[in-house]
Predict the 3D structure of the following.
Amino acid sequence: MGSAGLLLVLTLLALGWLLREPLAQAWRRRRLAQQPFPAAWRAVLRQHWPYFRRMPADLQLQLKKRMQVFLAEKPIIGCGGLEVTDEMRVLIAAQACLLLLNRSQSRFDGVRQILLYPGAFWVQRPVTQDGGVQHEQRRALSGESWVQGQVILSWDDVLRGAADAGDGQNVVIHEFAHQLDQAKGAATGLPADISRWQRARWAAVMSGEYAAHQQRAAAGQVSLLSDYAVTDPAEFFAVASEVFFEQAEALSQQHPALYEQLSRYYRLNLLSWS
């Protein structure tokens, strides 16, 4: 065999090796999605998550398949003495997988594990005051998302978010929106999976809506979006995602351009559900 032939063989072997894991992963996920959805999980959804009953039947089925893969791949680890139950796992997976409807399961490939606390958890973060003086501040949080692939959640807040599916506040949606934003690095409010031809429109709408929200907050005006959305563009995207999924009609009326961008990104027209 000549050098050209040997190079071709080596190239084909290398290509086969590179494709091996993605193909095996796709096969595993198909097998998981084809398994019967546990009746006990269905009971948890119907009892504790009224949002599920609002969903069209085809999306309910799709969500259950996404959940089966998610729960097989993503460990949920109890912290602070919490023992994780199936109810906890199902409610976290259901709300997180809303963000995967009509999209690839691979969108959450960067999520390595979910850490679950009984309630709000305390963290210490450096805070810079006027004059540049920096000190440590202790804060209680209901959720956090790390660029390394960890999502930290408070079970009390997960359960509260599931029970009220129309208040526009959902810690699971918020933190997993951050994970989409952090897929390629630090969160910026411009997720990497937005197509190149949509980026200019996304940036224009989101920056305009963010600036307008900052002005409303500074003037003390009531807004559909929480004041936390003024923190930075990444938090604005996460808060807007909560409102999109839970208060779609109000968002479409008060912020039609923002609703349109989120509808395109998440590939869902939630107005058609009612």
